[in-house]
């Protein structure tokens, strides 16, 4: 059974371990700096870049405001083109649907196009439990799968691995799952790519069933759009007899003309390319050409919950370019696994709590996995205001009864709230604090309060409050 993020520690604990891994930090820093440098050069070529961002944000907001209508249009068009549409409320329903569809074909090994949604719902594990082997064909996703690892980036899942580590994985694992790595394999990139190509080609040519996600769904024609860089996606999408696309309900764009806006943004922001090498579009079934059975599984899994959040719903604009991760100083130092989800970095810090709610200790800690520097706001192609959402989610944790709170913190907040509601009690508490100032430890507060001083200094407590000073000096005139 493949590893999962289930039971992953909360971000503070996971990040504390990750920041001490020097090789991880070196791998992540090198990769993110390379990608964001290429992005900056390509973005600078477009004088209309900011206009494109405005258009993309407006289009996504229109979709979210009328999502029900657009999804019904997608269903109508896919059905008219010979496909079958299925609806899944959560991960369990989606996994059961896909498993049943694969079992109906009688196949026991299938191929997959990289899909963060199928990672989100744990599809590979569900298929494995049913005796079905789902083999990843994207190079980075295949590295993660062969290494029994977890993805750490939405565009480059194996970003945390270097060439030497990848070579070791290929030599050790390829033979267990098909064609082995060539003898004498080195960590030279062309050699590694060729080893992967030979290993995966057998999978493409044998597989009768393929599973994909989608970057976009065009409502006016029911067209599924898959954008990728290696050609593995096109092999899966054209050679299989049965194609099952598992797609989040937020991936809709209204028209082909709207799609143009996003295709101009995505490659530049994600990989620093003017256009992705492979953009595959398909609508239903065409007799004699490509898969002859097509299923579209539309998945909610918390997306309507996020949609109901007036501030947070903008996270559903996300087109999974990964630029927010590449620019984030926190992600650069912790890597992706510390976030405990297939969605790491700034988008993970807001999307995971929106999808799952703030009452889980791992989820509730994520809005605090940010310095609030705002760099993510500046690179987002759909103008998500990450800092606004982070602050709102922190407010929800602070005002709510999230499990992340220590019992002592909950009791202290309730007591402080009660005192602040009564001016006389508050003034007495302020005077007492001034008197007790010399007794407060300078380096670390005692007990549960010690967590606050792990990364902060205890401020000097003045003997006199501002209000007292103001009253005594007639507003500072004496």
From TrEMBL:
InterPro entries: 4Fe4S_Fe-S-bd (IPR017896), 4Fe4S_Fe_S_CS (IPR017900), FTHF_cligase-like_sf (IPR024185), Helical_ferredxn (IPR009051), LUD_dom (IPR003741), LutB/LldF (IPR004452), LutB_C (IPR024569), NagB/RpiA_transferase-like (IPR037171). Gene3D superfamilies: Alpha-helical ferredoxin, NagB/RpiA/CoA transferase-like. Residues 309-338 form the 4Fe-4S ferredoxin-type domain. SUPFAM superfamilies: 4Fe-4S ferredoxins, NagB/RpiA/CoA transferase-like. One of its GO terms (biological process) is lactate metabolic process. GO terms for molecular function: 4 iron, 4 sulfur cluster binding; metal ion binding. The keyword Repeat applies. This is L-lactate dehydrogenase complex protein LldF. It comes from Streptacidiphilus jiangxiensis. The lineage of its organism: Bacteria, Bacillati, Actinomycetota, Actinomycetes, Kitasatosporales.
């Amino acid at each position: 059974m493949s590893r999962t993020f289930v039971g992953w520690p909360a971000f503070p604990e996971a990040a504390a371990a990750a920041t001490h891994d020097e090789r991880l930090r070196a791998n992540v820093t090198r990769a993110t700096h390379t990608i964001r440098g290429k992005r900056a050069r390509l973005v600078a070529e477009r004088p209309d870049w900011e206009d494109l961002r405005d258009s993309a944000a407006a289009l996504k907001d229109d979709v979210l405001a009328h999502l029900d209508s657009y999804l019904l249009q997608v269903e109508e068009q896919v059905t008219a083109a010979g496909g079958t549409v299925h609806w899944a409320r959560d991960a369990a329903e989606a996994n059961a649907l896909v498993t049943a569809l694969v079992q109906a074909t009688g196949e026991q090994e299938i191929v997959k196009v990289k899909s963060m949604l199928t990672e989100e719902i744990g599809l590979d594990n569900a298929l494995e439990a049913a005796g079905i082997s789902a083999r990843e064909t994207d190079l980075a996703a295949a590295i993660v799968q062969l290494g029994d690892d977890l993805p750490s980036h939405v565009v480059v899942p194996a970003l945390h691995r270097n060439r030497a580590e990848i070579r070791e994985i290929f030599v050790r694992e390829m033979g267990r799952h098909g064609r082995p790595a060539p003898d004498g394999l080195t960590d030279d990139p062309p050699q590694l790519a060729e080893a992967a190509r030979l290993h995966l080609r057998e999978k493409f040519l044998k597989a009768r069933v393929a599973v994909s996600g989608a970057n976009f769904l065009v409502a006016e024609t029911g067209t599924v759009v898959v954008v990728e860089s290696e050609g593995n996606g096109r092999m899966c999408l054209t050679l299989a007899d049965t194609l099952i696309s598992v797609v989040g309900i937020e991936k809709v764009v209204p028209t082909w003309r709207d799609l143009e806006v996003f295709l101009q943004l995505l490659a530049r922001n994600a990989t620093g390319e003017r256009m992705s090498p492979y953009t595959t579009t398909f609508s239903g079934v065409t007799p004699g050409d490509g898969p002859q059975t097509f299923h579209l599984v539309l998945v909610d899994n918390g997306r309507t919950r996020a949609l109901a959040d007036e501030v947070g719903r903008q996270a559903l604009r996300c087109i999974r370019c990964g630029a927010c991760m590449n620019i984030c100083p926190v992600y650069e130092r912790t890597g992706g696994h510390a976030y405990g989800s297939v969605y790491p970095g700034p988008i993970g810090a807001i999307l995971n709590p929106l999808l799952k709610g703030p009452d889980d200790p791992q989820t509730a800690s994520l809005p605090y996995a940010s310095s609030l520097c705002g760099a993510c706001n500046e690179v987002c192609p759909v103008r998500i205001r990450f800092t606004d959402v982070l602050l709102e989610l922190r407010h929800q944790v602070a005002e709510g009864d999230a499990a992340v709170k220590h019992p002592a913190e909950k009791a202290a907040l309730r007591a402080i709230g009660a005192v602040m509601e009564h001016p006389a009690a508050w003034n007495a508490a302020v005077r007492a604090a001034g008197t007790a100032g010399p007794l407060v430890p300078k380096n670390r507060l005692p007990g549960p309060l010690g967590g606050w001083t792990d990364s902060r200094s205890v401020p000097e407590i003045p003997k006199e409050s501002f209000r007292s000073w103001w009253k005594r000096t007639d507003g500072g005139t004496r």
